[in-house]
Prior knowledge:
Layout: H1 4-53, H2 58-64, E1 72-77, E2 82-85, E3 99-105, E4 108-117, E5 120-127, H3 128-164, H4 166-177, H5 196-243, H6 247-276, E6 287-290, H7 291-309, E7 312-316, E8 322-325, H8 327-344, E9 350-358, E10 361-367, H9 399-409, E11 413-418, E12 424-429
Parallel strand pairs: 7-9
Antiparallel strand pairs: 1-2, 1-5, 3-4, 4-5, 6-8, 9-10, 10-12, 11-12
Amino acid sequence: MNSIRARVLALLLAMLAFAAGVMGTVTYHNVLAETEALFDYQLRQMALSLRDQGEIAPDQAGALADRELDFVIQIWSADGQTIYASRPHDELPARALLGFADVSAGKQTWRTFTVLRGQRVIQVAQPRQIRQRLAAGAALRSVAPLVGIAPLIALLTWAAATRVLRPLRSVARAVREREPQSLSPLPTAKLPDELSPLVAALNGLLGQLAQAMDTQRAFVADAAHELRSPLQALKLQIRLLERAEDEATRAEAVRALAEGVERSAWLVEQLLVLARNEPGAPPLPTARVDLAEAARSALAATVPLAVSRGSELALQADEPVPLQGDAGSLAVLVRNLVDNAVRHSPPGARVEVRAVLDAGAPLLVVDDAGPGIPEAERERVFDRFYRRDPGAGEGSGLGLAIVRTIAARHGATVTLGDSPQGGLRASVRFPAAA
């Protein structure tokens, strides 16, 4: 039974049935006891009335002899002789106990009340079976209204449960009827307190999905725009290669084509790295890695670029710098920072990289001798495809965006400042190990 309404109804009806059973049982026994007490009171009053009356008049004796009466009056003398019996009976009580008593006579039991008046014993008796039947009838009649109203209570309970769960059905209908591409928040007006957290959580999830889809659409649009220029350049270079008339022109066209393919491959690689580290991407496989080793690997991959520009790479990582993370992603982070430093530094400049523990926290610092970044633009350069000077350099505008994305997935922060070498200092501080 997975229906909430069915569960609520079953629980409420079970509680009502239990309550009705308890109330019915208590009422039945109470009415039974009160009826028994009333019958005892009648016996006592009748016996006391006969005692005070002194004798039974003939007309009264005729009335008491009516066989439809359910009680019998007997009077004995002091020596046990029967003086009077209201009516003949095969199994009348043959003995008398003063006060109330249950006396067995033959196959039935009599409820008796006996008083003593002078030399006479007066007894009023009533069959126990008749008393019980009358008492049970009175008790059942008192419980009957409760049994009769039970279906109405069940119907009202079903209606109440349906009404209470109406907001839940409204929310389900709103979710079911909306278009797949609609990520607008669900209405929250007049929702019960128990349902508000669920709708708020759904709206939060819808907001995250909308943000992720907007980010993806913007990413695809920007990627398409950025890829258009390199692809057009490749097509132009291929045409120049086809039209080359001599070996020297052909060799120059092949070199330009190779550079264009390399730039396009680098751009595609950067796009893939950024896509893998987007918000909502699968979590990184974390392990205990050495930031210093990741820095060495990244510098080794950047050596050809540094050599082509006559730049010098320096690494300060005398001791292991352990942290929890993904070695491949960390290598990409360091490589992007070093690549940017080399590309934006003048030829022959020095790029310094430090991977150290600072107050127990892993710290990566990259210093270059380039033009640096004005403080007003240091936050802007983390945007995708942003270039301070679009016409200069060979960058894709993705390097620092990738650095911040990877750092965020490792719980690290990236800050930009002024380098002692006159250029830019990029610092990545990771959380201290527990």
